[in-house]
Specification:
With 194 residues, the protein is mainly beta. The chain has a single domain, classed as q2cbj1_9rhob like domain (Jelly Rolls), CATH 2.60.120.620. 12% of the residues lie in helices and 37% in strands. It contains 3 helices and 11 strands. An 8-stranded antiparallel beta sheet has the order 1-2-9-6-11-5-4-3. A hairpin with a 2-residue loop joins β1 and β2. Its cofactor is L-ascorbate. It comes from Lysobacter stagni. Keywords: Dioxygenase, Oxidoreductase. Pfam families: 2OG-FeII_Oxy_3.
């Protein structure tokens, strides 16, 4: 559980193979502003899941860390990530970007860091509405490649997890004409100065 009083309380908490995953709902009141901004963003097909799937690139747009830390969404993300910090280790953002997926896109399972790094991934679902029939869930797997949980898109939902948990974002189903935007902030674990 969160012990830092400045940290946000999670709506749901899970542990997958000893690694934490937390879901936060209801903390981003202006999600529509982000969706409208992303509808005008310049996405490039440059992102890959793993080196062996490099021929299947997907759409992304980068955000510079200097710009990220000025955004209200980052303060919410930072406060949620504070709940993962310990007396010995904190977290510092090192990358931020938005993925967009549509029906027919191919996305692959991957991890975001090596097992001993314990970096965090903060993943925002940026949509004004999302129907359960549209799919688009993020699937999280255990060490036996069994589905440990699925987190479905919801307007302004944030999920933060240990980057070594294997996961994949599923593209929307055929009946969905809305883009599936996920805004990711990657945090590296850093020692707390003494």
């Amino acid at each position: 559980m969160t012990t830092n009083p400045a940290a946000l309380a999670a709506s749901r908490e899970l542990v997958i193979d000893g690694r934490p995953l937390r879901v936060f709902d209801g903390h981003l009141p202006n999600v529509g502003d982000y969706v409208r901004g992303l509808s005008k963003a310049a996405f490039t097909r440059t992102e890959i899941a793993r080196p062996d799937t490099a021929e299947y690139r997907h759409w992304a747009t980068e955000v510079k860390i200097e710009a990220l830390v000025q955004q209200p969404i980052f303060d919410i993300t930072r406060r949620a990530a504070m709940g993962f910090a310990t007396a010995e280790y904190g977290y510092r953002p090192y990358r931020a970007y938005t993925n967009v997926a549509s029906y027919g896109d191919m996305l692959f399972t991957h991890t975001d860091c090596l097992p001993d790094q314990h970096d965090l991934t903060a993943l925002w679902y940026l949509c004004e509405r999302w129907d359960v029939e549209w799919g688009g869930e993020t699937m999280f797997y255990d060490a036996q490649d069994e589905v440990a949980c699925a987190i479905r898109p919801q307007p302004g939902r944030l999920v933060i997890f240990d980057g070594a948990i294997k996961h994949v974002g599923r593209p929307p189903n055929r009946i969905c004409y809305a883009p599936r935007y996920t805004f990711a902030v990657k945090f590296e674990r850093v020692p707390v100065p003494r």
